Amino acid sequence: MEGFLTTPVGIFAITLAQTLALLVPVLMGVAYLTLAERKVLAAMQLRKGPNVVGPFGLLQPFADAIKMLMKETIVPSGANRYLFLFAPMLTFMLAMLAWAVIPVNEGWAIADINVGILYLFAISSLGVYGVIIAGWASNSKYAFLGALRSAAQMVSYEVSMGFVIVTVLMCVGSLNLTAVVKAQETVWFFIPLFPMFIIFFISTLAETNRAPFDLPEGESELVAGFFVEYSSMSFALFFLGEYANMILMSALTTILFLGGWLPPMDIAPFNWLPGPIWFILKICLCLFTFIWVRATFPRYRYDQLMRLGWKVFLPFSLVWLVLTAAVLKLTGWLPA
Known about the structure:
The protein is mostly helical. It has helices at residues 2-5, 8-44, 60-70, 81-97, 116-137, 141-172, 177-182, 194-207, 219-222, 232-257, 275-296, 302-331. Keywords: Cell membrane, Membrane, NAD, Oxidoreductase, Quinone, Translocase, Transmembrane, Transmembrane helix, Ubiquinone.
């Protein structure tokens, strides 16, 4: 058996099993995140939310999935058919590929590579292409305007996110995500780097096109934004991609600032729960904040969105990066 596991077929089988063990829970999480969002928003607006399909509405995500599967996929007559259908698949695939380097526990990563942060940067940067292709291939001015908005928004906030991540990496001295978590055994980084934690979380809202930064999907002026022409499973893939990115960004926030799978304190009863449970609980806390923000804040104007990204977050994160480097150098934590 050991000999088989070292053959190419055995390595492929192990990788496939690891991939399914990670992606199946992620997809189930995406399905139930849609239900959780509707339930939380309903509670905040003093109404019930989905409560008919199954006990407490727990089968609602499956009813929605079946409805999407049974609908017809309509391709507009003036659209580029191949790119139109490729765009949602690209968005969904990139959302899944990013999970390859996420460590759920120590040693629990499909690919525990030393440049995990760079891999995530590359995947998240490619994510904008799915939106741009969808907007252009739809042959609709509303979809195209939504795609342009999304491209500008994601590029703008990726810059400040980059400076935030560089600040964390300076404190760690490694690009490996497992090393980032282990560096927080004494204190989680959200305490010494609290302003950067806030900037990073707000930037993840903009990066995932979530309220109050959901301008690419502005119903009031763009009908529905870049996916206005989509229906059936092509629309569902965009939907799944957005919610999978929400979970991914929450996982990244957990790894960079909230200690990953580490408990708050290494004493009972905190250390009784296994690491993956702590990791999931922290992700759920971040996702709840995503939904809370949506229920609380009105949508920004586009000029306000750009001003916040370029005139507030970018200079502040750059100044904090320099200050962090200076403190680490003076205290001797930063290598020469």
